[in-house]
Structures
1.
Amino acid sequence: MSDAKAWAAADDAHRLIAKALAKLVAEDPTIPPHPYLSRHLADHAARGRVLDDAHVPLAVLPWESSRNVRTLLRQAGAGQQKEWLEAWAVIEPFVRDADPDSRLTSLHLAHHAATRRRTPSAGLPAATRGMAGSRITPLWSDWSVPDNVLAVSDIPVESLAHTTTSDGRSLLISGDSHGTIRMWETHGVPFGTPLHTNGGAIQHLLPLQADLFVSGGTDGAVRVWHTLRGQLLAEPVRRPRTWVSGLTLHRPVDAPRLLLVAHSDGHLTALDTATFQPVETPLPDLEAAPAILTGIGLDGADGMALAIAQGRQVRLWRPGQDIVRTDPPHQDEVRAVVDLPVPGRFATCDDSGHIAVWDASTGRRTAAATPSAGGSVIALAAVVVDGVHAVVSAGIDHTLRMWNADTGRPIGGALEGHTAPPVALAALPLAARASDALPLDAFPLAARAWEALAPDAQALVVSAGADRTLRRWKLTGHGNRPPRPVRRPVTAAAPAGRALAGPALLLAVADEAGTALWNVETGRQVPLPAGESTVTAFAWAADGGEPLLLTAHSDAGVRIWSLDVGGGAPPRSRGKLVNHSIPVQAMEAFTDGERALLATGSGDGSVRLWDLGRQRPLACWDDHMLSVRDIAVLDTGHGTLIVSAGADGTVRLWDPATEPAGRPPIHCGQQGVHAVAAVPPRHGEAALIASGGEDGTVRLWDAAILRAVGAPLDADDGPVTALVSFPGPAGGPFLAAAGPSGTIHLWDVTARTHLLRIVTGNPLSTLAVRGPNGPDTADMGHPVLLAAGTAGVCVFRVHLERY
C-alpha cells in the first residue's frame, strides 16, 4: 500500500484501509479498540468516501478521540447509512473527558432521539431498546438539535477573530470572560495550549501580520501574542482602572499602519505595528467615555478613515480634517462597527436593533435594516454571500440574521440554534479547496481530511454564544433556502405517577406553541386547551380518586384539569387558583390525610399552600427575598414538609400542619439556589434535602437540624437548575442533576459517588421522576427519568443495578 501508483486514486487506498480497520473493531462497545482505530478510522473512511456505519462501527464511537466526526460528516455528503455516526456527531463536542460508560449511554440516548422521534415505546424493535454497556433504556423522545456546533467552551466566550498563519493554517481565536485565549482549527479542534492573561475578560482580538495578534481586556491591558508559538511577546499598554473599549488598525496617507487603542475613559493610544512602541501622531479628541473604533478602507492612496462610536453617535475622522458626525444618529447606544469590503462603506448596530450602512466620505446613511423585533443587536460581521455584499448580525433574541449591505433588506430567514445570545462573530474567508493549493503534508491528518473535503467558495461565519458554544453557519444559498424548523424550548414537562395512570406512561409537555398530553405506550396525543398563556409548570394530583393535572401559566394563574386517563376524552377545566402576582415557577401536589394539597412557588417570592378539593388558599409564606425557583415535598416519617429554593441563596422549610411561619432558613452558600430535591429517611437515617446551586454544586442538608451533611457534590460544568431524588434497586437514595450544560449527572447519595454523565448537547431546564406524590420506580425497580429543555423532551429508564 505504500506505493501510491498501485492505486487508481488515493481514495481507493483509504477505502481499503477503512474496511480492514473496521474488521478489527470488537462487536462489544465496552471493549476498548486499539488507539489507532479510535483516532484515525473515521479519517480513513472520510478520505475513502465511505464514511458510514459499516466502516466506522458503533462499537468504536464511544472511544472515538479525533473529535472530528461532526465535521467529516458535514463535508462527506450523502452516502450509506450513518445513523450512529450522526448520533455521535450531535454529542461529540460535549462529551470531552466523559468516562466510557457515560459516552456509551449518551450515544444510546442520542441515537434514539435522532431515529425514533415520537415513536411509542411499544413500537420500538427489541434490538434498539437495549445496547451493551448502556446504563439506560430510551422510552420516548421528541428531541431535535442543531448540527453546527464547532466547539464547546468551559467559560463564556466574549471575543472571536479569524486569522491565517504564515504556513496557511486557518485558525479561530477566542477570548473568554476569565482572561483566557484559545485557538481552534476552523473545524473545531483546539490548536495549541490556552493562553492565560491573569487579567480581566478578553473583549477584543485583532489579528496582525507575521503570525501575531493583539488582545485587549477589562484589565486595561493590551497584549501582543505569537499565534504559532503560543507566546506572549509584549504588553505595550496598561491603563489602570479602565478597560480596553476598542482596537483597530489605521493607515494614514503616506504613512505606516498604526495600531489604535481606545480605553473606557476616552483615551486614545497609537502604537507602531512593528515595535509596538507609542507613536506621536495626530489623534482625534474623544469624550471621556468608552469608544468603539474601526478603520475604514478608502479608495487607492487615500489611506483610511476612522469610525468612532460613543453612545448613540458615530463620528468619522481623518488626519488634518475635522470630525464628521454621521447623520442621523442612532436610536440607542451603538454596540458594534464593522468595515465593509466596499471602499468607504461601514455598518453599525445598536441596542434598539437598528442596523445602518454608511458612506465614510459623506457621513450619510446609505442603507438601513428594519429594527429587529427581538431587541438589541450585539455584534456584526461583513461577508460576501452569493456575490452580494452583506452584513451578519447577532441578536439578543439568540439568532443570526443577514442583511443586504446595499439595500438593507434581509437575506433569508433567521439563523436559529444558539440557546443564548451570540456575542461575537468571525467571518471565514472564501476559499477554494485547500487540496488544490497546499500539499497534503502541510496539515495533520484530521485537519487535512477536513480541508480536502471542504466545498468550493462557501461563505461561512462562526459565532460565539453565551451558551458557551462556537457554531459554524453556511451562508451560501441561504436566501433561497426555506428556514429550517426549529424546536421551541420546552417550558414545562412532567410524567404522571403510576397511582394516577397505572402501567401507562403519560407525559404533560408544554412549549411556546402549545400544551399536550402524550401516551408513551400508544403514541397518542391529546391537546390541552390551556389558552394562549404559556404553561410554566405542571403537577399531577388526585382528588377523591379523580386524576387531576395542574398547569401554572404566564398570567400567574394555576388551572385545574380533570382527566379521563383511560378513555382519552379531552381534559375538562375544573377551576382556577389565583393569588400570585408573578407566574408560578414550580409546584408540587401531595396528600394530607383525605385532603389533596398543592404547594406553589412564584417569582413574587412567596410559597402558597392550596386545598385542591375546595380550591382555596390555606397559607402564604413570603420570607424569600427574591423569587422562588423550585418546590419539593419531603416526607420525614413524622409528617410532611414543604421545601422551597430561592434566588436569594436560601432553602426554607414549611410545615403545613403546625407552623404558621417557616423555620430558620438554610444559607446554602451556592450564590443562588435553583433547585431542591427531597431525600426521605431510610433505615433510621435522617431525612435530607438536596440543593442545586448557581456555583455548579449539589449540597445535602439534614432536614431536622438544618446542617450540611458531607462535602458538596460538584457537577463541574455550570449551574445546577434541575434536581430530583429517587431510590435505587436496593432502596438507597440517588440524585440526578442537570442544567444549561446539557449534561445529566447521577450520584449515589450514600456513597457520595458520581456514577454517570448523560450528555445531551443542549441546555436542560427540567428533570422529573415518575411518581405519584414523590419518586417511585418503574418496572423491575428501575427509575424512569424525564429530561426537557431547549431541544425538546426525552424519557428513559435508568439501570442502576451495576452500581
Note: The mean pLDDT is 87.
2.
Amino acid sequence: MPRFSIIVPSHGVAGRLSEALDSVLGQSFGDLQLIPVCDAPDAPAAEVAAEYAGRDSRVTPVHSPPSAGLSGARNAGMRAATGAYVLFLDGDDLLLPGALEAVDARLTEAGGVDVLYVEHERTPWWEGEPTNPAAPLLAKAPKGAFAPAELPALTGVQLPAWSAVHRRGFLTAHELVFPESHFTDLGWGGLTTVAAGRIAVLRRVVVRHRLRRQGSRLNLPGPHQHALLDQVDLVLTRAAERALPAERTGPLFEQLFAVVLKTASRPERLTSGHRAFFRRAGRLYRRHRPAGYPAPGGSLGVQHRLLATGAYTAFRALRGANRTAARSAGRLPRPRMLRTRLRYARELRRPLDPALAVYCAYWGRGYACNPAAIHAKARELAPHIRSVFLVEAGQEHAVPKDVEYAVIGSHRYWEVLARAKYLVNNANFAEGVVKRPGSVHLQTQHGTPLKKMGVDQSTYPVVAAQSGSFTKLLGRVDRWDFNLSSNRHSTRMWERAFPGGYEQLEYGYPRNDVYCTATAEDVIRIRKELGIPEGRTAVLYAPTHRDHHTGFETGLDLEAFCEAAGEDVVVLLRAHYFYDHGRTRNSDRIIDVTAHRSAEDVCLAADALVTDYSSIMFDYANLDRPIVVYADDWDVYRETRGVYFDLMAEPPGPVARTPGELAAVFRDGAYAGPESTALRAAFRERFCEFDDGRAAERVVRRVLLGEPPEALPAVIPLAERVPAPAAATLVRS
C-alpha cells in the first residue's frame, strides 16, 4: 500500500495537466499513487494521462463524466485510491518540491491524525504577488496533534480540498464523499472537520494554486449559486446530528453564513431568484443558529439581523445591491481619427445585421487560409449570408473578382465591423473593434503550434519584446466565441496560450480540406501554373521566421543542394509570409513561390517538403508525402523562441543537421524510405486528427447555421482518408 494517493481532476485543464503530473512524479518522496481523473478515454486529458501511465506504473488514470462535476471526479479518484493518505490537486496546480517528504515527516511526528491541514500558495495567473491565505487560519494551532475542539475556529470550510491531507481509513469509516453540485469544497471541508477526531497542521506551503484568468467558476453568475445553501444546510445538519458543542458550532455557523452574505450582496452572481435565495438563507439561518449565538457588531451584525428577519428590501438598500456595474465604453480603444470614431460609434448603435459575415486573413493580406475556405463553403451552404473580406490597401488584387471586400481603415471597413453578426479571422481584428452582444467571433488560427504562442511567449525576451502588450492580446482573446483546433495537441496548447472563455471546436482546419478533395487534374494544373518541369521532383523548401533575425535568410545554399541532391530535383522556395515583398529568387532549378497566394496549392504541387520548424509540416502531413526536417539551429531556436515538444524526438521524417546530410537523404532515397514512412505515420496519427476534408462544412453548419454538434458530419478516421495524389504517383500511373 503506497503512503499517499494523489487525485488530480483534469476537466478543462488538459493544457497544463502535464505540469501538475510532473510536479507529483518529481517529488523526492516516491511512495505514491497518482490518479489523474479524465472525462472519458478519448478526452484530451486522457491522452496525456495515458502517456504518463505508460511510463510510470504509479500512475492510475480513471474516468468520470463531465456531468458528474468536480465532486464526481474526486469521488471516482477516491474509489481507486489505495494509499494510506489521500491528497487532492487541481489539474493546473503544482505540488511544490519536497512537499510529500514534509507531509510524511509531519504525519509521522503527529502520529495517526485524521486530517492534516497544510498551507497553500495562491499565485496570480499573470502578475502580482502570491498570497498564503491558509497561514493565518493555521497560525494558532497547537504544535502537536489535537482535537478540533481545541481550535474551534479551524472549521475546514475556509480551506480548499487541496489544503489538507486525509487518512483514507478515516474517510472510509465515516463514508465521507464530496457532496454533489457546486461549492463542493465548502461542504467537504465542513463534513471532514465535523467528523475528525484528531487533527494537526503543517505550517509549510505544499500546493501552488494557480489562479485561472477566467476566475473561479463559483464566481460566475447563474442558478448554481443557489447550491451554496444546499452545502450550508448539509454541513450544519451533520454538525447537529453529531451534537457538536456550541463553542464549535458557533464559528462554523458564522463562517458559513459569511459566504452566504457575500453572495447575497452581489446580485450580479444571482441572475434570477434573488429574493428566493435570501428568504431560504434566512430560514436556514433561523433553523441552524446555535443557542445563545451573539450576532457580530457593526454593519455585519446588521446584515445578520436582516437575514434572520427576512428583510430583503432593507438588505438590498444597505448593501447597495441596486447599483449597476457601469461599463465605460471610454475604456475601449477606438479608431484614431475623430470623424471615423464618430461614424463607428454611430454604426454601433444600429442593430446587428444577422445576414452579414466579415472575414479577414493574415491582417488583411488577401483571400487566404481558413477564412477563405470557410467563406467558400458558406457561399455553398449559407448563401443567404452576405460576406465581406477585409484587405489592406494595395492588396485588393489578392481578392477574387466575385468576392466583396472592404479596405482596412476605410469608412466601410468600420461600418461592416460594427454591423456584422459573424466575424471570422485567423489572427485578430483591430484593437478598436468592439465585441457586441449577439455577435459571434470565430478565431480560426493559422497553424499547429510547435513554437510557443500567446502568453507562453512572455518568458522569452526576444519574442516578448516584439509581441506588444500581452494585456491587449488577452483583451482581443476575450472577443472570441469559438476557436478552431485541428488536433488535440493544439486544443491543449491554445488553452494555455490564449486563456479565455471561448469554446474549442475540434473540427480540423478548413484550409486543409483541399488535401483530401483535390484531384489528379488539380495537381497537374497547379504544377504547370508554377512552372515545374515534367518529370522533376519538386521539393518545397519552407523555412520559418526567426525572431532573432532581422530579415529573411534561406539558411541553405539552394543551388548547391540541387546539385548534390540529384539532377531531377527542383526547389520551390516559400519564405515566411513576413518576407513576401513581391520579389522573386528564381533560377533554372529554383522557383520562388513566396508570393503565391495559396500555400495549399504549393503543397499540392510538391513531391516532398523540407522545412525547419514551420507549422507548414503539420498541414503538409495530411498529404502523406515525404517530409525532411532541416534543423541546423534547433538548440538556438528552442532557447530563443520556446517550443511545446521536442521535434527532434518526434519528427515527421528524417532529420538533417548539415547541408551535406540533407542532400544525402535525397540522393540515396532515404527521404521516402520505410523509416521515413514510419515516422510520418506516427506524426500523422498525432497531428492530422481532425483534418478529413469536411472541416469547413462543420464550421459553417455550427457557427453560421447554428446546427447542434451532434448533427455535424463525424470526423473520418485517418485510415479511411484518401489524400490528393502526388505528381510522382501520377507519372507512374
Note: The longest strand covers residues 199-210.
